[in-house]
């Protein structure tokens, strides 16, 4: 397991019975988590007194209860000097997946040590955590997401981290269609980050289902790797698709023509109360030979 263990402004205090107790800066949240199937005693005192808790509705969706939160606030990831806007949404999310910090550390080192200009493509880029990490490390970044609102949020995060004037190109588009156009244009990238949802829709109603589409999309996107590319990162949060499965897809698509090595592991966040770690999806990483 790859651990996101360098946070100071985020902490996973406890998790049990389908829920997790988290600290985001100074605010304590309770949110659902399908991986926490165990039933421990909820001894941490803040289980009974969070600043807000998200409860699912039997009719679908859910809502924040006991809400004593501001509309938004910021937290720092001091290890890489990054800052993020946190804003709880109607779908339990806060605008940031803290486990991804482990990936930011990995590819930031590759970018910094490349000793040459590095161009990165971030697909399904959400609010730009990976975008600003790559930019802070010195890369130029193309940030692609189908949601205009998420792209606007990413711009705010870049500004918060002092990157408003850095070479980041923001694009609202269907990721597959963008990749197809980039292939026709003859563009190449030194690093590619792909963080696809399990299910989603593009800006024109295009339906995305990970298990039906990911193999084709990875094979397509690999065509954008530069001959001396540094890395390709593929994330998955889909239950039933293991790290090994995603790694197999990545290995098949890349190593024949680009060499290098693929590793795949679960991502995890340390749990303060238990001393163990909560699994938070999988990361498959290809690293080039250089």
Provide a short characterization of the protein structure.
Helix content is 25%, strand content 32%.
Detailed description of the structure:
The chain has six helices and 17 strands. By secondary structure, it is an alpha/beta fold. The chain folds into two domains: 75 residues, Immunoglobulin-like (Sandwich); 190 residues, Vaccinia Virus protein VP39 (Rossmann fold). Helix 5 packs parallel to helix 6. The two termini are 25 Å apart. The mean pLDDT is 93.
Topology:
Layout: E1 2-3, E2 10-16, E3 19-24, E4 27-32, E5 52-56, E6 62-65, E7 73-77, E8 82-86, H1 101-112, E9 119-123, H2 129-137, E10 140-145, H3 148-160, E11 168-172, H4 175-185, E12 191-194, E13 199-201, E14 207-209, H5 210-221, E15 231-236, H6 243-258, E16 261-270, E17 277-287
Parallel strand pairs: 1-16, 4-5, 9-10, 9-12, 10-11, 12-15
Antiparallel strand pairs: 2-3, 3-4, 5-6, 7-8, 13-14, 15-17, 16-17
As a percent range, the share of strand residues is 25-35%
Shape, per Cα inertia axes: globular
Structural class: alpha/beta
Q: CATH top level of the largest domain?
A: Alpha Beta
Total number of strands: 17
Q: Could you name the CATH topology of the largest domain?
A: Rossmann fold
CATH superfamily annotation of the largest domain: Vaccinia Virus protein VP39
| Tally of discrete structural domains | 2
Radius of gyration based on Cα positions: 19 Å
Sheet of most strands? 8 strands, mixed
**Architecture of the largest domain, according to CATH?**
3-Layer(aba) Sandwich
Q: Residue-averaged pLDDT, rounded?
A: 93
